[in-house]
Amino acid sequence: MGLLGRKYNNSKPFAEKSNDRRLATGDSMISSQESDQQLVERVQKGDNTAFDLLVLKYQHKIFGLISRYVRDSDEIQDVAQEAFIKAYRALPKFRGDSAFYTWLYRIAINTAKNHLVSRSRRPPATDVDVEDAEYYESASSLRDIENPENALYGEELKQVVESAMKELPEDLRTAVTLREFDGLSYEDIADVMECPVGTVRSRIFRAREAIDKRVKQQIFGAESDDHLTLVKN
């Protein structure tokens, strides 16, 4: 399986330097959608080196995504490698009903969650589905926290945000991570999480609200509840 036999490492990635420098550097001349489809078809025809290129293209995003769930660096490497191996084995059945990257993200998230459950670290979270949540669109973005005024708080602000992220239920954390850190659309997130777009909007709104509340409470000293109410059953 080529690169899959190598240990995933943040400094020495799965896919080390490739002859295809356009993929290695993320050249904008390549259409991600077309390139993914072409590579997937090559893998399905038995070209394993094509999967190495897919790993090269997405390894850092998958590493970052998994690190939102798993903190230990060695475990992150193991989970990332397991996710790519699962994707490789499942590719023959990939029909292209969704974009390759959303399919891969779903595998990575499920692999990370299964890893946590296997170690009894966090029970599956519950959530309230909201089908029509267009009004949540007006909620402040997590990126709004990173304005010039807030930048003065530097590392302290970053630590507060990360702490608040860790306390979010898995479904909220996944949704806001895919939106704010990976830049996925609401539709793509719905595809990854296999839920309605309205539910995605609800989760992102509640995640942003909880993080914003924690920042105001710990950084700016705003009056707030003693704890965050993240999910109302």
Task: Give the topology string: H per helix, E per strand.
Answer: HHHHHHHHHH
Helicity level, as a percent range?
A: 55-70%
* Class computed from helices, strands and strand pairing: mainly alpha
Q: Give the total of beta strands.
A: 0
**Alpha-carbon distance between the two ends:** 46 Å
Q: What's the total helix number?
A: 10
**How would a textbook summarize the main sheet?**
none
State the fourth-level CATH superfamily of the largest domain: RNA polymerase sigma factor, region 2, helix turn helix motif
**What percentage of the residues does DSSP assign to strands (E)?**
under 5%
* Whole-number count of domains: 2
Overall spatial form: globular
CATH architecture of the largest domain: Orthogonal Bundle
Stretches where pLDDT falls below 50 for ≥5 residues?
6-13, 15-31, 123-141, 223-233
CATH topology of the largest domain: Rna Polymerase Sigma Factor, Chain: A
CATH class of the largest domain: Mainly Alpha
Q: For the CA atoms, what is the radius of gyration?
A: 19 Å
The mean pLDDT is 74
Describe this structure in words.
This protein is an all-alpha fold. The protein folds into 2 domains: 2-118, RNA polymerase sigma factor, region 2, helix turn helix motif (Rna Polymerase Sigma Factor, Chain: A, Orthogonal Bundle); 134-218, Arc Repressor Mutant, subunit A (Orthogonal Bundle), CATH 1.10.10. 58% of the residues lie in helices and 0% in strands. It contains 10 helices and no strands. Helix 7 (154-167) packs across helix 10. The longest helix has 22 residues, at 197-218. The radius of gyration is 19 Å and the shape is globular. The protein starts with 20 loop residues before the first helix and ends in a 15-residue tail after the last helix. The model is unreliable at 6-13, 15-31, 123-141 and 223-233 (pLDDT under 50).
